[in-house]
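Researcher: Let's continue the batch. This sequence belongs to Bifunctional protein HldE, and it's 466 residues. Same format as the previous ones, please.
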Amino acid sequence: MIGDALLDCYEIGEVIRISPEAPVPVVLHQDRRSVPGGAANVAMNCATLGADVTLIYVAGNDAAAEELTKILARGNIDSRVVLDASRSTSIKTRVVAGTQQLLRLDRETTAPIGPKIEDALLAAFESVINCCDTVLLSDYCKGSLTDRVLEHVIARAHSLGVPCLVDPKRKDFSSYAGATLIKPNLGEFEAVVGHTCNETAQIEEAAAKLCHKLGSDLLVTRSSKGMSLLSRDAEPVHLAARAFEVFDVSGAGDTVLATLGVALAGRWEMAKAMALANVAAGIVVQKAGTATLAIDELNEAILADHAVALPGGSVVDWEEARKRCQDWQKRGLKVGFTNGCFDLLHPGHVRSIHAAASHCDRLVVAINSDASVRRLKGATRPVQSEQDRAEIMAALSQVALVIIFDEDTPFELIAYLEPDVLVKGADYREEDVAGGDIVKARGGRIVLVPILEGRSTSKLVERSRA
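Model: Same format as before. Here are the C-alpha cells for Bifunctional protein HldE:
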C-alpha cells in the first residue's frame, strides 16, 4: 500500500447556543477521536479483512505523524514511513455535534515530494515488492505519488505480474497508465472524459476509449447507482448499489479499494472481487466517520442475502489449505472435512455436501487424485480428471476449499489440517472413518450423514456403457 496517508481527527461535542460574536454555533467539547485516513485507512481496511499489510507513506516530522504511526501499529500495519521535515502530516479535523458535521479544517502540504524523498519512498517499495500479492496506490493529490513514483511502481508491479490498483484524484489519468485497474468515482471519471455521464451507455462509450488509451481496466463507483467495471478484453459488468440507509460516505472509496485488493491477492476474478467490494461499500456507508470493515461483518452480509457468489471454494495445495484452516479456527470458526472421488457429481453427492456444510462454518472437501482413483476403482476410472472434478466441486457455494490428495485415504491430510468436524456417509461405521481418531483426540467429532440410496457414480458409468 503506497500513497497519501492522512490523520482524520474528530472533535466531538454538543451545540449549546449561537455565539454572540458571530452567527455560528458554540460547541461544548466532549471528546476527541483520531483514525487513519487516505492510504492509511485503505491499509487498515486491508488488515481488518485479514491481509498482511505494508504501508509506505511520507509524513512530516511532527506529532501527527507520531500519532498516526502508533494507531497503525495497533492495527498490525507494517509502517514504512519516510519523514520529511519540510512537510506537515496531512490532518483533516472535523467538528461534529451528534450526527451533524459542522466544520472541517485541513492542515496539509500538497507540494510534490523532492528527489531524495522519492528515492527513500522507492527504496522502501523495493524492499517489499517481491513479497507482495497486490499493490495498491491511493492518490489524494497530497504530493507523495509523483509521476516518477507512479511510473516506477506500476512498471515494477507489471514486470512481476502483481496486480496494481489505483484510487485516483488527478484530472488526467495518463500517469496511471499500465495499472491493472483504476478506480475513479463518477465525478472523477467525468472530469477526465470531459462530460457528464448520466447513463450507463455513456460510461461504457467513454470508458472504452480510456481503457484502450491507458492499457488499464476501470471500475467506476457510481454512488446510488452502484458500480461499473469496464475492461479492455471483457464485456462491461454493472452492479446495482445495495439498498442501505447511507449514514456517512467518508472513506467508502478506501473500503472499496481495500476489498478489491484483498480479493485479488486471494486470486479472485475481477468481477467477483467487484461484487465483494460492492457489499463492503454498502456496509461501511452505514457507519459514522472514516470507518473500517471487519471480516465478520462482510461474511455475515454475504451469508445473509447471498450477495456474492463466492469464488468456488478455491482449489488449493496442502500448505495454503492449512494456513486458511488455522486462520478460520483462530477466529472461532469450526472447520469441517469430507472426502471422496466425486467422479460424476450426482444428487447423492450434492445432498451429502449440503449435509456436511450444516455441521460446520467452513467445509473443506478433499478429492482423490486420478492415480488414487485408479487404485481404488480400476483402470477405467476416473471418468473426469482430478482438475475437472475439483473445479466442479469448488463451484458449490457450501464448499470453502477443495484439496486433491494422492494417498488411498485422507489420513495424512486430516492429520495435517486438524479439522474440527469429520463428515462421512452413514454407510460407514464411526470406527472405520480414516482420521477419526485424530479429530476426536483434539476434541472434535465425527458426523455420519444420510446417503441417497440408488445413486452412485459406478451405476451412472454402467448405464452410459449399456
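Researcher: Any comment?
Model: The CA atoms of residues 7 and 36 lie 5 Å apart.
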